[in-house]
Specification:
Distance between the termini: 54 Å
Bound molecules: NADP nicotinamide-adenine-dinucleotide phosphate
Oligomer: single chain
Number of strands: 10
Order of helices and strands: EHEHEHEHEHHEHEHHHEEEHHHHH
Shape: globular
Helix content: 40-55%
Protein backbone atom coordinates (compact mmCIF):
# COMPACT_ATOMS: atom_id res chain seq x y z
CA UNK A 1 0.00 0.00 0.00
CA UNK A 2 1.38 3.42 -0.98
CA UNK A 3 0.40 6.25 1.36
CA UNK A 4 -0.09 9.48 -0.58
CA UNK A 5 -0.08 13.05 0.74
CA UNK A 6 -2.40 15.01 -1.57
CA UNK A 7 -1.40 18.68 -1.47
CA UNK A 8 -3.80 20.98 -3.29
CA UNK A 9 -6.54 18.40 -2.71
CA UNK A 10 -9.39 20.83 -3.48
CA UNK A 11 -8.01 21.80 -6.90
CA UNK A 12 -8.39 20.39 -10.38
CA UNK A 13 -5.41 17.99 -10.15
CA UNK A 14 -6.03 17.23 -6.46
CA UNK A 15 -9.64 16.15 -7.04
CA UNK A 16 -8.69 13.93 -9.98
CA UNK A 17 -5.91 12.39 -7.89
CA UNK A 18 -8.38 11.59 -5.12
CA UNK A 19 -10.62 9.88 -7.68
CA UNK A 20 -7.69 7.68 -8.76
CA UNK A 21 -6.57 6.90 -5.23
CA UNK A 22 -10.14 6.05 -4.13
CA UNK A 23 -10.44 3.58 -7.03
CA UNK A 24 -7.12 1.86 -6.31
CA UNK A 25 -6.65 -0.91 -3.73
CA UNK A 26 -2.91 -0.12 -3.66
CA UNK A 27 -3.15 3.59 -2.82
CA UNK A 28 -4.44 5.42 0.23
CA UNK A 29 -4.57 9.06 1.25
CA UNK A 30 -2.54 9.79 4.38
CA UNK A 31 -2.64 13.61 4.34
CA UNK A 32 -4.66 16.38 2.72
CA UNK A 33 -3.81 20.06 2.25
CA UNK A 34 -5.45 23.08 0.66
CA UNK A 35 -4.87 26.83 0.64
CA UNK A 36 -8.10 28.13 2.14
CA UNK A 37 -10.97 25.75 1.35
CA UNK A 38 -12.11 23.38 4.11
CA UNK A 39 -11.07 19.72 3.90
CA UNK A 40 -13.36 18.23 6.57
CA UNK A 41 -15.58 16.28 4.20
CA UNK A 42 -12.70 14.96 2.07
CA UNK A 43 -10.87 13.88 5.24
CA UNK A 44 -13.81 12.33 7.08
CA UNK A 45 -15.00 10.19 4.16
CA UNK A 46 -11.47 8.76 3.80
CA UNK A 47 -10.57 8.53 7.49
CA UNK A 48 -7.61 10.90 7.03
CA UNK A 49 -6.20 12.33 10.28
CA UNK A 50 -3.49 14.61 8.89
CA UNK A 51 -5.09 17.71 7.38
CA UNK A 52 -3.88 21.25 6.83
CA UNK A 53 -5.46 24.38 5.39
CA UNK A 54 -2.76 26.93 4.41
CA UNK A 55 0.44 27.51 6.35
CA UNK A 56 3.60 25.42 6.33
CA UNK A 57 2.88 22.12 4.58
CA UNK A 58 6.19 20.58 5.68
CA UNK A 59 4.78 20.16 9.23
CA UNK A 60 1.94 18.11 7.74
CA UNK A 61 4.44 16.00 5.77
CA UNK A 62 6.60 15.44 8.86
CA UNK A 63 3.68 14.15 10.89
CA UNK A 64 2.08 12.00 8.14
CA UNK A 65 5.29 10.37 6.72
CA UNK A 66 3.93 9.73 3.20
CA UNK A 67 5.43 7.29 0.67
CA UNK A 68 4.46 9.68 -2.13
CA UNK A 69 3.91 13.44 -2.08
CA UNK A 70 1.52 14.57 -4.81
CA UNK A 71 2.29 18.27 -5.05
CA UNK A 72 -0.72 19.85 -6.79
CA UNK A 73 -0.52 23.20 -5.01
CA UNK A 74 -0.60 26.11 -7.45
CA UNK A 75 2.32 28.56 -7.59
CA UNK A 76 5.49 29.25 -5.60
CA UNK A 77 3.61 28.21 -2.42
CA UNK A 78 4.35 24.62 -3.45
CA UNK A 79 8.12 25.02 -3.07
CA UNK A 80 8.65 23.86 0.56
CA UNK A 81 6.79 20.60 -0.12
CA UNK A 82 8.83 19.94 -3.28
CA UNK A 83 12.10 20.45 -1.41
CA UNK A 84 10.86 18.43 1.59
CA UNK A 85 10.22 15.37 -0.60
CA UNK A 86 13.37 15.68 -2.73
CA UNK A 87 15.63 16.20 0.29
CA UNK A 88 14.31 13.05 2.00
CA UNK A 89 14.16 10.78 -1.03
CA UNK A 90 10.37 10.53 -0.74
CA UNK A 91 8.78 9.97 -4.16
CA UNK A 92 7.54 13.29 -5.52
CA UNK A 93 4.67 13.29 -8.04
CA UNK A 94 5.04 16.86 -9.23
CA UNK A 95 2.20 18.86 -10.78
CA UNK A 96 3.43 22.09 -9.18
CA UNK A 97 5.74 23.09 -12.03
CA UNK A 98 6.28 26.57 -10.56
CA UNK A 99 8.46 25.15 -7.76
CA UNK A 100 10.81 23.41 -10.18
CA UNK A 101 10.98 26.46 -12.44
CA UNK A 102 11.73 28.83 -9.57
CA UNK A 103 14.15 26.59 -7.70
CA UNK A 104 15.50 24.24 -10.38
CA UNK A 105 19.13 24.17 -9.26
CA UNK A 106 18.29 23.89 -5.55
CA UNK A 107 15.68 21.22 -6.28
CA UNK A 108 18.12 19.11 -8.31
CA UNK A 109 20.74 19.33 -5.55
CA UNK A 110 18.11 18.23 -3.04
CA UNK A 111 17.16 15.32 -5.29
CA UNK A 112 20.79 14.28 -5.56
CA UNK A 113 21.12 14.26 -1.77
CA UNK A 114 17.77 12.51 -1.22
CA UNK A 115 18.12 10.03 -4.07
CA UNK A 116 14.35 9.60 -4.53
CA UNK A 117 12.07 9.63 -7.55
CA UNK A 118 10.85 12.83 -9.19
CA UNK A 119 7.89 11.88 -11.36
CA UNK A 120 6.30 14.60 -13.48
CA UNK A 121 2.51 14.90 -13.48
CA UNK A 122 2.38 17.59 -16.15
CA UNK A 123 1.02 15.69 -19.16
CA UNK A 124 3.80 16.76 -21.56
CA UNK A 125 6.53 15.87 -19.07
CA UNK A 126 4.94 12.59 -18.11
CA UNK A 127 4.85 11.80 -21.83
CA UNK A 128 8.46 12.91 -22.33
CA UNK A 129 9.54 10.89 -19.29
CA UNK A 130 7.98 7.78 -20.86
CA UNK A 131 9.55 8.44 -24.30
CA UNK A 132 12.96 9.06 -22.71
CA UNK A 133 12.98 6.30 -20.10
CA UNK A 134 15.92 3.98 -20.57
CA UNK A 135 17.51 6.03 -23.40
CA UNK A 136 20.98 7.52 -23.24
CA UNK A 137 20.78 11.32 -23.43
CA UNK A 138 23.40 11.50 -26.17
CA UNK A 139 21.02 9.61 -28.48
CA UNK A 140 18.40 12.34 -28.05
CA UNK A 141 18.51 15.10 -30.63
CA UNK A 142 15.66 17.09 -29.13
CA UNK A 143 12.52 16.98 -27.06
CA UNK A 144 9.41 18.50 -28.62
CA UNK A 145 6.76 19.82 -26.23
CA UNK A 146 3.31 20.25 -27.70
CA UNK A 147 1.07 23.23 -26.89
CA UNK A 148 -2.65 23.44 -27.64
CA UNK A 149 -2.20 27.12 -28.44
CA UNK A 150 -4.96 28.00 -25.96
CA UNK A 151 -8.20 29.86 -26.68
CA UNK A 152 -6.47 32.69 -28.59
CA UNK A 153 -4.53 30.63 -31.12
CA UNK A 154 -4.49 32.32 -34.52
CA UNK A 155 -5.31 35.79 -33.16
CA UNK A 156 -3.21 38.91 -33.66
CA UNK A 157 -2.05 41.20 -30.84
CA UNK A 158 -4.69 43.77 -31.85
CA UNK A 159 -7.38 41.12 -31.50
CA UNK A 160 -6.20 40.37 -27.96
CA UNK A 161 -6.50 43.94 -26.71
CA UNK A 162 -9.99 43.69 -25.27
CA UNK A 163 -10.11 40.03 -24.22
CA UNK A 164 -11.74 39.36 -20.87
CA UNK A 165 -11.11 37.00 -18.00
CA UNK A 166 -13.99 34.80 -19.25
CA UNK A 167 -12.43 34.63 -22.75
CA UNK A 168 -9.07 33.61 -21.29
CA UNK A 169 -10.65 30.96 -19.06
CA UNK A 170 -12.37 29.19 -21.98
CA UNK A 171 -9.66 26.62 -22.76
CA UNK A 172 -10.36 24.49 -25.86
CA UNK A 173 -8.98 21.13 -24.68
CA UNK A 174 -8.14 21.07 -20.93
CA UNK A 175 -10.32 21.73 -17.83
CA UNK A 176 -7.90 23.21 -15.29
CA UNK A 177 -7.58 25.69 -12.42
CA UNK A 178 -7.74 29.42 -13.32
CA UNK A 179 -4.02 30.24 -13.05
CA UNK A 180 -2.80 27.55 -15.42
CA UNK A 181 -5.70 28.25 -17.79
CA UNK A 182 -4.61 31.88 -18.14
CA UNK A 183 -1.01 30.66 -18.50
CA UNK A 184 -2.17 28.48 -21.39
CA UNK A 185 -3.84 31.47 -23.05
CA UNK A 186 -0.62 33.55 -22.86
CA UNK A 187 1.69 30.55 -23.61
CA UNK A 188 3.45 31.24 -20.27
CA UNK A 189 2.41 27.71 -19.38
CA UNK A 190 4.53 26.38 -22.22
CA UNK A 191 7.30 28.73 -21.13
CA UNK A 192 7.18 27.30 -17.61
CA UNK A 193 7.11 23.81 -19.10
CA UNK A 194 10.16 24.54 -21.22
CA UNK A 195 12.13 25.42 -18.07
CA UNK A 196 10.59 22.49 -16.19
CA UNK A 197 11.72 20.12 -18.97
CA UNK A 198 15.25 21.53 -18.87
CA UNK A 199 15.56 20.69 -15.18
CA UNK A 200 13.71 17.37 -15.33
CA UNK A 201 15.57 15.88 -18.28
CA UNK A 202 18.96 17.64 -18.14
CA UNK A 203 18.54 18.87 -21.72
CA UNK A 204 19.96 22.23 -22.82
CA UNK A 205 17.38 24.74 -24.03
CA UNK A 206 18.47 24.52 -27.65
CA UNK A 207 17.42 20.86 -27.59
CA UNK A 208 13.88 21.58 -26.38
CA UNK A 209 11.38 22.70 -29.01
CA UNK A 210 7.77 23.80 -28.74
CA UNK A 211 5.17 23.09 -31.41
CA UNK A 212 1.48 24.01 -31.45
CA UNK A 213 -0.81 21.00 -31.78
CA UNK A 214 -4.42 22.18 -31.32
CA UNK A 215 -6.15 18.93 -30.30
CA UNK A 216 -3.64 17.97 -27.55
CA UNK A 217 -3.55 14.29 -28.59
CA UNK A 218 0.24 14.11 -28.95
CA UNK A 219 1.70 15.11 -25.57
CA UNK A 220 5.42 14.99 -26.37
CA UNK A 221 7.79 13.80 -29.06
CA UNK A 222 11.44 12.82 -28.69
CA UNK A 223 13.60 13.04 -31.78
CA UNK A 224 16.56 10.64 -31.77
CA UNK A 225 19.87 11.00 -33.59
CA UNK A 226 19.05 8.21 -36.06
CA UNK A 227 16.15 10.21 -37.53
CA UNK A 228 13.44 8.36 -35.59
CA UNK A 229 10.90 10.18 -33.42
CA UNK A 230 9.00 8.57 -30.55
CA UNK A 231 5.73 10.20 -29.52
CA UNK A 232 3.24 9.73 -26.68
CA UNK A 233 -0.45 9.95 -27.63
CA UNK A 234 -3.77 9.90 -25.82
CA UNK A 235 -6.88 12.00 -25.38
CA UNK A 236 -6.25 14.99 -23.12
CA UNK A 237 -7.15 13.67 -19.67
CA UNK A 238 -4.99 14.43 -16.64
CA UNK A 239 -6.06 11.23 -14.89
CA UNK A 240 -3.59 9.35 -17.13
CA UNK A 241 -0.39 11.17 -16.06
CA UNK A 242 -1.63 11.42 -12.45
CA UNK A 243 -2.23 7.66 -12.35
CA UNK A 244 1.10 6.97 -14.05
CA UNK A 245 2.99 8.98 -11.42
CA UNK A 246 1.08 7.51 -8.48
CA UNK A 247 1.39 3.90 -9.61
CA UNK A 248 4.85 4.07 -11.24
CA UNK A 249 6.35 1.74 -12.40
CA UNK A 250 3.21 -0.42 -12.55
CA UNK A 251 1.06 1.66 -14.92
CA UNK A 252 -2.27 0.75 -13.35
CA UNK A 253 -5.51 0.49 -15.29
CA UNK A 254 -7.68 3.65 -15.48
CA UNK A 255 -11.22 4.30 -16.72
CA UNK A 256 -9.87 6.59 -19.47
CA UNK A 257 -10.65 5.49 -23.04
CA UNK A 258 -7.77 4.77 -25.41
CA UNK A 259 -7.60 6.43 -28.84
CA UNK A 260 -10.39 5.59 -31.28
CA UNK A 261 -9.22 5.45 -34.90
CA UNK A 262 -12.52 4.19 -36.35
CA UNK A 263 -13.61 7.69 -37.41
CA UNK A 264 -10.07 8.64 -38.50
CA UNK A 265 -7.69 10.84 -36.55
CA UNK A 266 -5.77 13.80 -37.94
CA UNK A 267 -2.79 15.33 -36.20
CA UNK A 268 -1.93 18.94 -37.02
CA UNK A 269 1.11 20.93 -35.99
CA UNK A 270 2.19 24.54 -36.49
CA UNK A 271 4.93 26.77 -35.10
CA UNK A 272 4.07 28.97 -32.10
CA UNK A 273 3.46 32.69 -32.76
CA UNK A 274 6.17 34.20 -30.58
CA UNK A 275 5.27 37.80 -31.46
CA UNK A 276 1.67 37.60 -30.33
CA UNK A 277 2.58 35.41 -27.33
CA UNK A 278 5.94 36.80 -26.10
CA UNK A 279 5.86 34.92 -22.79
CA UNK A 280 7.17 31.78 -24.46
CA UNK A 281 10.24 33.56 -25.83
CA UNK A 282 10.72 35.38 -22.51
CA UNK A 283 10.77 32.02 -20.70
CA UNK A 284 13.43 30.70 -23.03
CA UNK A 285 15.46 33.84 -22.43
CA UNK A 286 15.02 33.57 -18.64
CA UNK A 287 15.92 29.88 -18.71
CA UNK A 288 19.03 30.42 -20.81
CA UNK A 289 20.13 33.31 -18.57
CA UNK A 290 19.85 30.94 -15.58
CA UNK A 291 20.47 32.04 -11.97
CA UNK A 292 17.27 33.42 -10.46
CA UNK A 293 15.87 34.66 -13.80
CA UNK A 294 13.47 31.68 -14.02
CA UNK A 295 12.37 32.44 -10.43
CA UNK A 296 11.74 36.07 -11.41
CA UNK A 297 9.86 34.99 -14.54
CA UNK A 298 7.60 32.78 -12.47
CA UNK A 299 7.06 35.36 -9.71
CA UNK A 300 6.22 38.16 -12.15
CA UNK A 301 3.88 35.89 -14.06
CA UNK A 302 2.05 34.90 -10.84
CA UNK A 303 1.61 38.56 -9.89
CA UNK A 304 0.46 39.54 -13.39
CA UNK A 305 -1.99 36.66 -13.75
CA UNK A 306 -3.52 37.45 -10.34
CA UNK A 307 -3.87 41.10 -11.40
CA UNK A 308 -5.48 40.06 -14.70
CA UNK A 309 -7.90 37.70 -12.94
CA UNK A 310 -8.79 40.52 -10.50
CA UNK A 311 -9.52 42.88 -13.41
CA UNK A 312 -6.54 45.12 -12.58
CA UNK A 313 -4.45 44.37 -15.69
CA UNK A 314 -5.31 43.92 -19.37
CA UNK A 315 -4.44 40.56 -20.94
CA UNK A 316 -1.52 41.94 -22.96
CA UNK A 317 -0.19 43.56 -19.79
CA UNK A 318 0.75 40.14 -18.39
CA UNK A 319 3.69 39.80 -20.80
CA UNK A 320 4.55 43.47 -20.27
CA UNK A 321 4.86 42.98 -16.51
CA UNK A 322 7.06 39.89 -16.90
CA UNK A 323 9.32 41.61 -19.46
CA UNK A 324 9.76 44.66 -17.21
CA UNK A 325 10.51 42.50 -14.18
CA UNK A 326 13.15 40.49 -16.04
CA UNK A 327 14.77 43.79 -17.06
CA UNK A 328 14.76 45.04 -13.46
CA UNK A 329 16.20 42.07 -11.55
CA UNK A 330 19.86 41.02 -11.45
CA UNK A 331 19.25 37.26 -11.70
CA UNK A 332 22.12 36.43 -9.34
CA UNK A 333 22.00 32.69 -8.50
CA UNK A 334 20.56 31.77 -5.09
CA UNK A 335 22.93 29.86 -2.81
CA UNK A 336 20.08 28.61 -0.61
CA UNK A 337 16.35 28.71 -0.13
CA UNK A 338 16.49 31.99 1.85
CA UNK A 339 18.18 33.76 -1.08
CA UNK A 340 15.69 32.24 -3.48
CA UNK A 341 12.75 33.46 -1.39
CA UNK A 342 14.35 36.93 -1.42
CA UNK A 343 14.74 36.84 -5.21
CA UNK A 344 11.10 35.78 -5.53
CA UNK A 345 9.97 38.62 -3.24
CA UNK A 346 12.06 41.19 -5.10
CA UNK A 347 10.63 40.10 -8.45
CA UNK A 348 7.11 40.31 -6.99
CA UNK A 349 7.76 43.91 -5.86
CA UNK A 350 8.93 44.91 -9.35
CA UNK A 351 5.99 43.11 -10.93
CA UNK A 352 3.44 44.76 -8.60
CA UNK A 353 4.79 48.18 -9.44
CA UNK A 354 4.88 47.39 -13.19
CA UNK A 355 1.28 46.11 -12.99
CA UNK A 356 0.24 49.23 -11.03
CA UNK A 357 1.64 51.46 -13.77
CA UNK A 358 -0.38 49.56 -16.39
CA UNK A 359 -3.75 49.87 -14.63
CA UNK A 360 -6.34 50.63 -17.35
N1 LIG B 1 -5.15 21.38 -13.85
C1 LIG B 1 -4.40 20.75 -14.70
O1 LIG B 1 -4.92 20.06 -15.59
C2 LIG B 1 -2.90 20.84 -14.62
C3 LIG B 1 -2.12 20.21 -15.60
C4 LIG B 1 -0.74 20.23 -15.47
C5 LIG B 1 -0.15 20.87 -14.40
N2 LIG B 1 -0.92 21.49 -13.48
C6 LIG B 1 -0.28 22.17 -12.36
O2 LIG B 1 -0.79 21.65 -11.14
C7 LIG B 1 -0.85 22.67 -10.15
C8 LIG B 1 -2.29 22.78 -9.65
O3 LIG B 1 -3.12 23.17 -10.74
P1 LIG B 1 -4.71 23.12 -10.64
O4 LIG B 1 -5.19 23.39 -12.00
O5 LIG B 1 -5.12 21.87 -9.94
O6 LIG B 1 -4.98 24.39 -9.71
P2 LIG B 1 -6.29 24.75 -8.87
O7 LIG B 1 -7.47 24.02 -9.40
O8 LIG B 1 -6.34 26.23 -8.79
O9 LIG B 1 -5.96 24.14 -7.43
C9 LIG B 1 -4.89 24.64 -6.66
C10 LIG B 1 -4.82 23.90 -5.35
O10 LIG B 1 -3.74 24.46 -4.59
C11 LIG B 1 -4.25 24.81 -3.30
N3 LIG B 1 -3.45 25.89 -2.76
C12 LIG B 1 -3.33 27.15 -3.22
N4 LIG B 1 -2.46 27.85 -2.44
C13 LIG B 1 -2.06 27.01 -1.46
C14 LIG B 1 -1.20 27.13 -0.34
N5 LIG B 1 -0.60 28.29 -0.05
N6 LIG B 1 -1.00 26.04 0.45
C15 LIG B 1 -1.62 24.88 0.18
N7 LIG B 1 -2.45 24.70 -0.87
C16 LIG B 1 -2.66 25.75 -1.67
C17 LIG B 1 -5.69 25.18 -3.55
O11 LIG B 1 -6.43 25.20 -2.34
P3 LIG B 1 -7.79 26.09 -2.21
O12 LIG B 1 -8.84 25.32 -2.96
O13 LIG B 1 -8.06 26.11 -0.75
O14 LIG B 1 -7.51 27.41 -2.82
C18 LIG B 1 -6.09 24.06 -4.50
O15 LIG B 1 -6.32 22.88 -3.78
C19 LIG B 1 -0.33 23.94 -10.82
O16 LIG B 1 1.04 24.09 -10.55
C20 LIG B 1 -0.52 23.68 -12.31
O17 LIG B 1 0.39 24.37 -13.12
C21 LIG B 1 -2.28 21.49 -13.55
Amino acid sequence: MKRVAVLGATGSIGRQALEIIDASPELEVCALASGSNELDELATTRGVRHVQVGGDLTALLDESSPDVVLNAVVGFAGLPATLWALERGVTLALANKESLVAAGDLALSARERGGGLLLPVDSEHSAAFQCLEGRALETVESLVLTASGGPFRGRTREELEGVTRADALAHPTWQMGPKITVDSATLANKGLELIEAHFLFALPYERIEVVVHPTSVVHAIVRFRDGASVAHLGYPDMRVPISYALTYPDRAETSVEGLDFSEGLSLEFEPPDLETFPLLALARQAGESGGTYPCAYNAANEVAVAAFLAGRLPFLGIAGVVAETLEAVDGVPAADIEELVQADAEARRHAESAAGALVP
